Structure formats: structure tokens, C-alpha cells
Amino acid sequence: MATYRITFARSGASIEAPDDLPVLLAAERAGYVMASSCRNGTCRTCLRQLSAGAVGYRIEWPGLSADEKRDGWFLPCVAYPRSDLTIA
Ligand code: FES
């Protein structure tokens, strides 16, 4: 298991996150509240944008368009860190 650093650009806060835990859950375990609802990649309530780093998914195609993914948008409830991340 790898551990990555997730930085929240707006607040400057950062947390350590294992690669086997969705970003949303890692943030919650660290006491950082992020918006969420369905927690399964369909409602888009948790939608955030990366300014740096990469995430991966275990589901075939989470509720994002190809353009959104290219522009760094991701769904923290189902996205796993694959590098250090900076969330815009
Ligand atoms: S909480 Fe619904 S898509 Fe993430």
C-alpha cells in the first residue's frame, strides 16, 4: 500500500491518504469535511477539480464526461489517489 499527500489548495490543509481508500473517506478520517451524497459516483455532489496529481477508479466509468476527466474533474467518493494530489 502506498500513501500519498492530498493538499486542499483553498485552505492550504493537507492530509495523508492511502491508495486503497477513496479520497472522500481519507479526508473524512482526517477530519476534513467534503460535500457528498450518494457516495457511489452517480450524483456528482462531491465533484472537485484537481490542479495536480492523478486518481484512479475501480468502477468502469464514474459519472464524468471525457472532457471533464481531461480537465481534472473527479469524484472523490469513488476516486483513489494514484499520486500526491492538489485539489483546487
Ligand atoms: S457523492 Fe455522489 S458522486 Fe460522489
From TrEMBL:
The keyword ATP-binding is annotated on this UniProt entry: no
Keyword presence, Iron-sulfur: yes
Start and end residues of each 2Fe-2S ferredoxin-type domain: 4-88
Classification via InterPro entries: 2Fe-2S_ferredoxin-like_sf, 2Fe-2S_ferredoxin-type, Beta-grasp_dom_sf
CDD domains: fer2
Cofactor(s), by name: [2Fe-2S] cluster
Keyword field: 2Fe-2S, Electron transport, Iron, Iron-sulfur, Metal-binding, Transport
One Pfam family named in its UniProt record: Fer2
Origin: domain of life: Bacteria
Gene Ontology MF: a single term: 2 iron, 2 sulfur cluster binding
Family, as annotated: Belongs to the 2Fe2S plant-type ferredoxin family.
Name used for this protein in its record: 2Fe-2S iron-sulfur cluster binding domain-containing protein
